[in-house]
Each structure stands twice: as C-alpha cells, then as structure tokens.
C-alpha cells in the first residue's frame, strides 16, 4: 500500500461535461480529474471519488486493480449498478448516492406519461400534424389501478403522486413491510393493474424481471412505464408484447444500451413511447447534484456520519 | 297559445348520434325527435326539450318564434352559450346542464397538458419519429404557479388537481368570494402565473377576454390552456403571441369554429397544441349524460325541484 501524502485530502472526479461546481471546496481539498482511460491509474491516490459521469462503467472496471482505494465514493445518480463491483461491495469504502434530487421530477414524469397515454395525446398530436379533427373518447385516470415496482424513495414518490390523481396504487419492494408488498404479490398486482411502473434499482434480482411471462400477465388494456434502468426490461419481450397487443402501450425512459442508436428497432415499436433517459432531469439538476456533493463533503470533512449511504449488499439506500 | 294535448308529457330531443338511451322513460313520456331544420316547428308541442346535440345553435334561432315553449330545457353540456338567447333568458323556462359529468375528466386533461408541456413530451415524440436521442432538461411542475380562470365546478376541480401536483393555484371568478379572486385581480395573477387555464363559461363578459393585451401581460416562459369555449380566446392574438414568443406555449381544446377545417392556420402555429374538443369526453360519457337526464326527468315528473339549474342571467349554474 502506498502511503498517501499528508495535508489536504485528494478528491478525484470522474469527469463529465459540464463539470461540477466545487468552488466552495477551494483550498480545502486537492481536486484531480480522471476520465475512463485514466481512472485506474489515479484511483490509488484518491481519498474520495466523485463519479460525476454517471454513464461511465469505468469504476467497475478499475476498482479491482492494485493499490489503495478511496474511502468514500459518491455517485451523482440514484442507481449504483454502474459502479458496484463485488470488490467494491466487499470493501470498507462507503458509497453514497444522489437520493433526494430525482424523486419529485421522476414522479412528475411518470404522471405526465400516464396522463398522456390515458388522454391519447401522442395520437392527438399526430392528427394535428395531419390537420385532422378526429374526436375520440379517452380514459379517466381517477379510479384506475397502478402497480409501482420499486419501494425506494423514487418508487414511493411516484406512488404518492399517482394517489394524488386518485389512482389506486400498490408498491412492490424487495421485502414486504407496512404499505409495501413483497415480490410474491407482484404477478397478482400486475395482473389487475392498469399501469405498471418500473422504478426498482438494477440488481442481480431485478435484472430482466420484466420479461415475456410478466408482460403476459398484464391486462390487454394495461400500460407499462420504465423510469428505472434499461436492464430491468427484456426489451425484445416488451416489443413483442406491444406488437402482438398483449398490452396497450408502454413508455421507456431507460434502455439496456444508451444512447439508443438510430438503427434500434425500439424507435418504431407500435405503442411504445421512447424518451432519452431524462425523467429526473429538471432544469438545475446538475447544480443540485453538485451542491449535494459539496454538502456531503462538508459532513465527511467534519467527520460527521454521511447520509445517502448505499447498502452495498442490496444495491440501494435502504429506507422506510 | 295552443293548448297541449292531455296525457303523457312530450319530450322533444334535439338529436345527435348516438341517440340518448331513454328506455327507462318508456310509457311515461312521449318522445319526439327534431333536428336543426324541424326544431322550430316542433318546439310549441314540447313540454321538455333535451338538447342532446350540444353543438347545435338551433335553439337560439328557434326559441324567439311563435307559440308555447317547453317549461324545461336540459342541455347535455356544461356550457349553455349555444342555447341562451335573450328570449329564453327572460322566460320562465328552467334550463339545466350537465354539471357533474365533465369536471374530473377536464381536470385530468388539464393536468395532462400541463405535465406534457413541462416535460416537453411533444418534442420528445417528434424526436422519436426522427430516431434522434436528444436529452434536454425539463421543468418541474411542483412549485410553479397556475391561474385558473373560471370558478365553476370545472375550474374548481382543475384547481384541486393542480394543487395535488403541488402547483400554487389561484382561481379567478366573476365575483370575489372566499378562495376565489374577482376580475380585478386577473391581470396581476396572470402576470405571475406559469400556467393560465381558461375554464370560464362563455358569456358577454368573457367573450374574447384572452386577447393581445392579456397575452402581453403573461411571462415569456408561461403557457396558456383553454378547455372552455373557443370564444373566450381571440385566436389571432394567441397565434401572434406564440409566433412572437410573448409566451412559451399554449394548448387549445375549444375553437371559435368547430370542427377546425384543414385550412385553419391554427394547426401549425409554433408551440400550439390542438385537440378536437375532447377534454371532458372519457369513455362512457354519453351514457353518463343520458343517465343524468333520466334522473333529472324523474325529479321533474315527481315535481321535485330540479338540480343543475342554470342562472340564465349569468349563463351558468351558480355554486360554492
């Protein structure tokens, strides 16, 4: 193990544009920068790693290498699947995430999609383009049923927002607890839901959980929304379920591979609404992420306990 | 005055397809049918007029003619502007409307439009058509301000729904009362609103109230939604406000002339979302309208006081 130089701690930032605003930490920390190609080399000299580029998988690749490792890793994202390798999970390094930034925006985005699908807005705007006046009867949202899969802060905020629109909403989580159903109830709840909303963390248990069998359980009038990681969904199975009209519609904001390339068949699946992983990203979100890290850093510097600490064996921040 | 024949009362239906389901009234009422061309001739022989064709203006035209007039007119619509002529307003005929059917659907439609505009969904779906992955930051809805113009049941339900999404919402009505602002506050509230929602009845006071001056009062980032009658809005002024970017966007579900013809310039105004007067029309709405009339008829038959009675001098059902 190389001894770290004394003095100010070293903060290594896995960069993405625009860079985080860390001016408030000037003079208190030595800030160094890495990209995917330099991360492995710089990692042994960092006390703290800020994963600002939350699309990179470089931490998973670099972490198992030689030398000391940062004592704390913060990711500017809700999900931690892109950095949690077994070696990091087994280490004493603390991992924190961006809990608190994305909940309300993602919940609003889900409400926007649910209401837009109920009111058939995509078709209305297609008709507008064709200058066609075609009145249709649409669906009420009040009184419908939703099943939110994911009992973390994002899933719970989605459920609260849908309930505010008078949607009867159930939440499914990894373990049953008050107000949260366990995985054993999932099929039954999906079978009677008008809306199935995927907002679970991506873990070995949840990868590919929305597959052909699960889409087959849903009602033909029901719709599916994924605002979690793309890996939750077997995309080919969803495309087939839509094409064969097993379900009435779907919206994906996350994909197995991002960005979606122009030749992806997903752009043109009938009844599928595609958006470029933006459900949580409201104006000012990057500044909010930067400010959140600075506040966490000041706790760390003052040796106060960190918040937003990820349970590395589960892959998310446990909570109520 | 011609004496009406004794026996069962005569219900005259101003028809539209699909016809109302009045089977429950069989044997208790003589049902006759009229269209725009026969209404004037049949009106003197009717005890009750059901304006099922709520797009027709034939009642306004036929009412001032010769002979007796129905004692009760019910319209299968929230608005009564299409039938209230001065002669009907001055008469002893009771007018009722479809209060109770459209509130929740219209409020959901407004929420759908507000969220879709905040989250830039129309552009997302344009980009999907072009197979383009283009991430944008969008707006939060929570914490924004709405001004709902119209303090009737529809306006109040819209306000309640927006408040449930944590939008700070003010209501403007004809007269100030608890929780409702008067017209004197309108410009001030519009000037600070992120969303201006038009849901007022169409009366001589409200016709053309959203004009160039009022769009000029709004913030450049604000958006306008009309789910009331088209006549509330000076359409040319709205088109100009959008084209010159005085405001950021608008959605119209009602138009001065409906249906909008293919050559209308409104289909292509930048930032304007057009929908074919369907905000209140959720699946089963016609059945609900028919059942509502049957229930009212049974009150009338039993000489119980009618509900949903329009104040003909104001042009809407007064309420809390």
UniProtKB/TrEMBL annotation, chains A, B:
Keyword terms: NAD, Oxidoreductase
Give every D-isomer specific 2-hydroxyacid dehydrogenase NAD-binding domain span. 112-279
Among Gene3D superfamilies, the record links this protein to:
NAD(P)-binding Rossmann-like Domain
Q: Which residues form the D-isomer specific 2-hydroxyacid dehydrogenase catalytic domain?
A: 32-297
| Source species, domain of life | Bacteria
Q: Which PROSITE patterns match?
A: D_2_HYDROXYACID_DH_3
In terms of Pfam families, this protein maps to: 2-Hacid_dh, 2-Hacid_dh_C
Q: Which family does it belong to?
A: Belongs to the D-isomer specific 2-hydroxyacid dehydrogenase family.
Q: What is this protein called?
A: D-2-hydroxyacid dehydrogenase
Query: Taxonomic classification, please?
Result: Bacteria, Bacillati, Actinomycetota, Actinomycetes, Kitasatosporales
